[in-house]
Hints:
- The termini are far apart.
- The model has no long low-confidence stretch (mean pLDDT 88).
- The protein has a 6-stranded parallel sheet, sandwiched between helices.
- The longest helix has 18 residues, at 295-312.
- The protein has 3 domains: 5-47, lambda repressor-like DNA-binding domains (434 Repressor (Amino-terminal Domain), Orthogonal Bundle), CATH 1.10.260; 54-159 and 294-324, 3-Layer(aba) Sandwich (Rossmann fold); 161-293, Rossmann fold (3-Layer(aba) Sandwich), CATH 3.40.50.
- The protein is of the alpha/beta class.
- Strand 6, helix 8 (189-204) and strand 7 (214-215) form a beta-alpha-beta unit.
- It is 43% helix and 15% strand.
Amino acid sequence: MAIRLQDIADDLNLSKMTISKVLRGQTDVSAETKARVLKRMKELNYRPNISARGLRTGQTYSVGMVVPTLADPSIAQMVRGINEVLRPASYSVVISSVEGDAEVEERETELHLSRQVDALIVCPRSDASDTPQVLKTTTVPVIYVGPTPARFTGLSIGLREAEVGQIAAEHLLERRCRRIAYLRGSRTAVADQRFAGFLEAMRSAGVAVRQEWIVDTQPGEADYRSGFAVMKRLLAGKTRPDGVVAYTDLLAAGARDAALADGVEIPRSLQVIGCGNVAPVCETQVALTSVDLVPEEIGRRVARIALKRIDEKGETSLRSATLSPRIVQRESTRTS
């Protein structure tokens, strides 16, 4: 005989509502009670009847997600955080990649809504300037991750982008670097905010920024080669930098390897910090210090908001939020 929700409630001397809250991932259930419920469900091999729940509640127990590309490692980390929250609540996430195409983004968004997802998570393209038309009239809860486009009035979870450049510069300044180069990425609003944070940290420390050490680079697959070539040029100058902040870990890895090939000791003579904390890139040769953009935590936060918005079915008291990045120190910078 199939195990029912009521059977678990009776077995643990709890209300059916409490068991239901655990399944939905609600936070007003104590950790101890949640652990007891999940343990008993596993022991009894209980599986929620999603179809029956859907007929009863009018929900599909799915959350749509639109992302610019699946090639970005931070997207995979974010999805890991989302699943950590959604799975215990018996929700699944359905992902669409738009590969930077505005028309594909519009179409995939419409497809998610036609599937009647209970909420939609949108990671906008870096060049997005407006909200997809279909989202301007939908009643489905929509949560943006990152910068929000014009005329979007819903909830968002983002990163304090200026802090990325700020804490990277402060990290090197605290380790006595004074000749710091900055390898820029693409000319986007996010890149500009990070660079502004870098400049502010340098200004606050009273350290001059030399224009020839602020280098534009081409983003994408050429990051490593760009970083290598730029560092070669910087090392050929009359005055060499003693620190490098790079927009990506691949840029930082290229700069590091160019310096090592030139006989520069890292971190003794040059300290390097990247951005993204991509382990396969950072944990090679002289392991790279990097700015962690906390994608898993962002994923967990956006999933919790999605579940709450689904539960509310109307006006919300929830507010948008921004999280701070953090430094993950490795061998490429000195201990303080």
